[in-house]
Amino acid sequence: MRASGRLSAIIALLILAATGVSHAESGHSDSFVLRAGTLLPVAEGKPWRIEDGVIIIRNGRIEAVGSYGDVELPDQLPVVHMPEATVLPGLVNAATSLAGSHRGDHSIGAGYRAIDAFDRFGDYQGALAAGVTTVHLEPGRHRLLSGQGAVVRLGGSPGNRILRKSADLMVTLGASSLQPPDIQEQLVPPASDQEIMPQQPQRPTTRLSQRLALKEAIEAALNDDVSDVYDRHRAALRDAWLDDLPIRVAADRAVDIGSAVTFLTAHERSGYLVGGAEAASVAERISNAGFPLVYTLPASFRAADRDLGDDSGALEHDLRELKDIKDLELALATRADDQLADLRLAAAVAQRAGLSAEQILRAVTSVPARILGVDDRIGSLSPGRDADLLVMTGDPLATSSHVQRVYVRGHVEYRAGGEYDTMVVRGGTIWLGPDEYLEDGSILIENGRISEVGRRVAHPPYARVINVPPGAFVTPGLIDSRGHLGLEGDTSAAGPQLSLAPLIGASGYADHRVARAGVTTVMMTPYNQSSQGSRVAAIKTLGESRSDRVLQETAGVAFELGNTDPAAVPGRLRPRLDAARQYLEAWQRYERELEEWKQRRDEVEAEPEEMEPEEETVITGEPDPISGIWEGRIFGAPIVEPASGRVAVQRDGDTFRGQVIELPQPVDHEIIGEIDGETISGRIEVDTGGMGIPTFEGELEEESAIGTIELAGMTVNFEMERIEKEADVQVLLQRRRGRDDDGRPTAPEVNESLEPLRAVLEERIPLIIEADTAAQIKAALNLIGEFDDFDISVVLVNADDALVHAERLRKDDIPIILHAKAVEMRNGQPHHRSIDLARRNIRFGFQSGAEDGARSLLELGLFAVERGLSPERALQAMTIDAARMYGLEDRIGRIAPGLDADLVIFTGYPFDAGSSVRRVIVNGEELLP
Amino acid sequence: MIAVLNDLFGCHKECRSVYFPVTQETGCMKVLLAGLAAFLAGSIAVESAAAPPDKLALTGGRIITVTGDDIEEGTVLIKHGRIVEVGADVDLPYDAMEIDTTGMVLMPGMIDPQSPRGLDRPNENVPVVPFLNVYDAIDPSRLFFENSLRDGITSVHVMQGNNTVVSALSRVVRPIGLSVDEMTVEPEVGLKLAVTPRSGADRISQMFELREAFAKLEHELNRLAEEKYEESLEEDENIDVGPGEARQQGRELLRDSDFSDKQRNLVRLLRGDLSAWFYAGRATDVGPAVEFSRHLGILDSSILVLGNEAHRAVTELEDAQRPVVLDPSLYHRSRDPMTGEIEEVFVPRIIHDAGLEFALQPNPSASMAERYLNYQAAICVREGLPREVAFKAITYYPAKMLGLEDDLGAIEPGKRANIVVFSGDPLDFDSWVEQVFIDGVLAYERDRDHRLQKLLRLEREGHEVIDPGPDPDEGDTKTDRESGEQASDAGADA
Q: According to the model, what pLDDT value does residue A642 have?
């Protein structure tokens, strides 16, 4: 019954996970809705910033952009929700050397096309990872007119990558184009009547002749007299000129830039300038002439390993001059070979010069898109444009932000590796521990643990960033000091041998509801404790497996005194503690002996050990009601499918032994039972990995037997039939040897019932005693006082009369887990007992005393605060104090490096009116809605 | 006729092929033959140069017709070098010479879809050479032809290598014969246009030169048309049409004789008389190749010669729906940039799934069995392609690409009698080429393959066997040439 409940929870989780996956993977389709924390549309007529915005993308194009709620969302499209992310258009690098320099000979080479050098199947993950989706290809800067530039995308299907095959005519003024090769027009085949032409020098070789060479080339191209010798470059220049292809003039020196402006103005051409360094000083002139400027930054941040000195080639950038020039259309670019991906970093550097973030972002998106003539396709988030999107973890110009995803035409072309392994939570007020606050701090989470806390922590690339809004409050996950989550209504008293951990599987609906309320750890306690005490398990409320969720399998031993007469309290607890003491001593003795034995062995240098022959017990059968081979099956709720098998059994007086035969894998086990008339009972000696020893009970009826097997509170049924009476069976049983031959001391038998109390005496876990009345409390404390050779840590539960012993509780530092209903009427007013404890400096914790009722834990605190408890104490009680009670303060209860990453983000101070839980992180995993 | 001459002169010393022995006998023999060949060229059909039996019947073998169903214990009746009847029940004329092929498997002669290996060197150092003809560079004595014949290849499309912009005019030859004329099956096939940069060039200049070649032609044709139009006018007639119209009319007046050598083959290429073999060595070249082909209006007569990686452009290939010649290495291995995992792709599978016809090439640089076309086809079958497709990829499809599907590529009536007789299934690894018939002539017989027999004998006698090596009588010079050939091949592939 319980197992089936667990099963359905797991199935539900699997289904949830599956739907989650399908949502996450919906990036495969190019129609979806992208909802993000912040949109920066960089579009005319749109607000600069849209908080909680949505982009509707259909067939790889943007259909609508707006804030969530304002835009009507189509039903059928999947929604990709990235609440932390900032989305902006993919970056445009308006100057790259990706195409390389061609080897053409011609100084005027209008026929060369940079697009030919573009590998449309190429892998440009490096640039995409930096957010650059579109680039301009230059055909080289080694010739006066080196050819036609192109604009391409760096991702997407190869057929869609080319935006403009022929975007401009590339003119380079300055030193780099002053050494054209001599040209030789080869005649094929050279023969006696076809002489090899001599080489002809080409211009320009000086600055002076640059403009003249250009002018002549243009005039020749426009001359309608078709010459005899066909010149493809001349034809290409003519076509380009007549088509009014923009002229792209690259020049670094102020003098060349001036010359370029004059040239463009004189020919009344559309065009723009590409320049670095000195461009700033003549920017005003460029702006006045109405030309845009592509400003190339040398990305010296890659390597600043040389002194610039008075090297005339080392140009100093002064963007400050640029920022004041009105109406200058400015685009930023990084051109050098290896700097294609550094555009965003260059932009961040530009921000230092005082350019506004808005100005800079335009300079790497919409402005270059417009200059390159592709603004109708890319460069802004506006309807009709291609969905080339850059998803960042935060402010795109902040160095701590990283590219999370890149979409090209609606397809994810880049996805940060390890998107969710590492997380940074930043901003807001962080409550580190009692009276320790960190304003505007950040927390680095790696592998489920907090690894760094501080004002500014490391932001590993690709870390997922959770931005906490200002005013919000981050606390450690809350702890329910005593709850029943996961028991699913089972009120049976669990003995001390029984671990609760096997009941825990992947977190389900109920767990998530509790987690959603900020409770990340529940001290799972059985509803009713056995008279010998019960184990308490510390479990997390979110996780995909048992190992993820179980923080500590045995975190305490709980006793329940209930209505026990105070005089009977010692009689109740003492035998258990005495037994535990003996058990502990047996172990201590064993450990001592083992230590001595080891020393002896090391001294003697023992001879090589001989293989010990296993003692064999051969049981030969005779006819009787039980001996023989039984065939049957076991079935029942915890077992999904009935399992069948055979058991060989041999009677020996009133007892019998048996073994399952024909096991698929050999398992060391033995069935030991008693037979009493027609009733059989016994146990199965087998290693169940800490789940206890299975026991069985059954009835014999002629040649069949039915009954139940019980293990760890779970019951399965069996029914068997004897198929061979004549027990001509020989059951080979291997039995454990008493004492090893080499003198190694034998370990005491592990007693699962006493193990928890041994841990108590070893001061690893607390003794949790539910005691209501003053007399009970006194009796219990006195008894524990008898065991003063141990420093037993005690936690009292409920302890309604705790105030009577306030002085003693405070002195011995005994914490109290408050009654779930810790409210009493005092003077006609509701009063919360926590206030009394707080006044007397007694530590306490809150308990839900419920399963998914744990989600109202916060309200318990809220009520106490409302009645006068300091909110700080309430928060402590739910975090560090509760953790300390169970000795778990090095795992949970605070925000400090090394602890589990259990965080709750509140909209405000947790106990302020109107503050609510916004997000919950357990073991570094966020609970997703 | 040459066979008759051989008989007359009685020289059977070292036979390269049974009917066309190469002799070292006398200088006068060569002169005589050369003179005879020159006399025969142009006037007498090539087939009649040899004197095969009028009627030949290959009986009893299993026939893989390629275009139709396989025939068990079938008969192929050959008359005057052509197949006249194929089937299980064929009435043999009384005068037919019967060759029993019982237990053997017959398939059409295989076709090497394009290879520069019959040439002395694969490419010129001048990039645009449509005025050249491979005729001038084919060396009939090359070991390559002998090896091809031994491997069951009956037609070789000799085309320049990929290290070019516009190549010389290619032709289809048989691997038998003493002169190029005698070998020729189809003298004018096509030109290779390389999109992938030749060595020493970059992509920008390669594409520029390719475009320039045709733009220049266009320019010259316009001028020629204008002149032609002016010539067509009467003395006193005035030009009363615009330049465009004049060019149009002039174009129509142009005759082949008006074109210069440099223009002629390009014009024929644009007219579709010659096929265009675009070399796209990498995926990114496929798009520009198809685009340029469309721009020139010759897509219907274009064939794409692909490099090992080019299948990645399968979308473009599918869109173009043109046949392709695959790279000899049929597997493509790439490393995933993100995970570093090596991914292996079987290229013919992708091409076949895209619905394209493809031709396989032998891999001359492979030391192993990839040198054999039937082995290449066998790999395809092993990788799950239909057997029929694998056979077509080495026979019928290349024949179609060459425009010779009426002559080659299948065993069916009307086709040239190019038949390879295997000892077993051609796709079996232990099958041998027993006999090769080319145009109804027994061109190869394993028992009389002296070089092979010598090799096998050496092996039997326990000698260490070195590479088959060149003809011992031809001396060291040949060895150098052969190794040079391989080296330059490797250069073209790179």
A: 67
